[in-house]
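User: Show me an example of a complex going from sequences to structure tokens.

Assistant: Sure. Here are the input components:
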Amino acid sequence: MTDEDVALSTTSTPLGGATRRDQRRVASRPLGSGWRQRLEIAFFVTPALALMAVFVVWPIVSAVRMSFYRWKGFGPMDDFIGIDNYRYVLSDDVFTGAVTHNFIIVFASILIQLPLGLAVALLLNRRIHGQGLLRTIVFVPYVLAEVIAGVVWYQLLQPESGVIDGLISAVGLTPPEQGFLGTPGLALGTVFVVLTWKYLGLAILLFLAGLQGVPHDLFEAAQLDGASWWQVQRRIAIPLLGPTIRTWCFLSMIGSLQLFDMVWILTGGGPANATTTMATYLINQGTGRHNYGIAGAASVILFVIGFLMALIYQVFVLRRDTTVER
Amino acid sequence: MIRRARPFGSGGPLVYLLALVAVIITLGPVVYGALGGFRSNEQLASDPSGLPDPWVFSNYTAVLSNEAFWRYALNSTIVALVTTFVAVLFGVMAAYPLARYQFKGREPLFMVFVLGLLFPAAVAIIPLFILVSRNLHLANTWWGVALPQAAFALPITVVILRPFLMAIPRELEEAALIDGASRVGIFWRLVVPLSMPALVTVGVLAFVASWNAYLLPLLLLQDDMRTLPLGVADYSSEHSSDTAGVLAFTTLAMIPALILFLAMQRRIVSGLQGAVKG
């Protein structure tokens, strides 16, 4: 909505009313003949819509269809079994465990990465030497492929021979015998630490950019009125970052729900299914065991969970934005 | 007394210390990988966190003379270029009427792309695998990976491009219309060149996403057609005893993305911010 305002103001500033009148006159000419405009719109929009129809919409629709059949991936899909696949998936401890792991990652991200990213961004938001370089460095892990980052961390986390176990022994503690990734109670937490390393840079970068949009006068005025550093951050900086924070939370949530690459590289879902996610579950069932119907049901459940969370979030955000800020 | 010199504006030693810690944590694993590639497996085993002594270059030269490495890099490059080209071309075409035409159903049409942002790609992955390999017979081809990736890159591309196109001054297009140019002609000769900076931004985002992608290539590409992330993952599991070799391979695989990022940093950052604002 704000973008439209910007676009409108840029088009109407130079000549004011005259421009707008011209615009209407010119615009009415090609738009007058309805069929021609429709043809042009179709020409521009069809390639994108066709590509999305084939590679996004159709697969999702066929995931839904698949979920009602018992199908091993060959022959006709004709063994209709109603909601049996859903029953199987929802009563499968591995799947419910996977959903739990996804939600742990969703909430841990918001509870840990958000304050951490915010703290670093607030502390770095000053005229310090090398801020540009610092921003570049902090963002490096985000640019690397999750797989490549995962392979390096996998080496770091090797039991005994890895650097991390070495550092822990060096300060006199005992690292876990099976390694951090091999101990069921520690594996998910370890995956989360690596994910935080990989994605904290995005949060810091977005928050820093948001903070730089805050007029400096505001800080100075508050300061002159005797506000402490913390009061300025608490009362001015963080509230003004609200929209950026909410968008980051949304992106983080969607990412956490479809977590796959890092888990696949670090643990493959193990040990003893301690780190499975919905995505690793449906890949295991689908291309691993050729239980395509079960994979389809898991996909649909993942979709519904994601959609519901997005919906709840939108309602929550909308309500906040209308009642508190406007 | 009331106003000390820049009390909030500049950093004290604590801020610099924090910055240093952030840098060490961030770059530590990357530097460890790069340095580890210069060590031998014996050095790595005897002291995992030591420096190269002596420096060993054979790990890196072995990767660089490994034909498979170059093959993976080539596959990654071509898949990423095709993905980028298709996503940017179709994306700017779709964004143009959404930015410029007044028609019923414009906002619902835009919502299709916004909703596309919400679909986790993982939901579609199994049917996508079946569609590409069985129905389209594009398994183990560049196109088979590039086209779906472009389709999933389209929503963010359109969402970022639309406000950009809206901000292009209308006067230029109006002048061309008066001179008798067609809308389609104006699009190619005026709108596309004028929106080049935005096209580069969305192009870089699409390129990086494709370059780093793992799940779809994992299902669709084998052997000689594998991309770098697949190559790295497979090399790491196949040569698990050769830690130094794995680190050298991984480090070299990081370099293209890092160079692209450093060269295009501003565009990536502004693109991500644009996506967040919109």
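The lines above are the inputs; the final block is the predicted structure for all two components together. Chain A has 15 helices and no strands.
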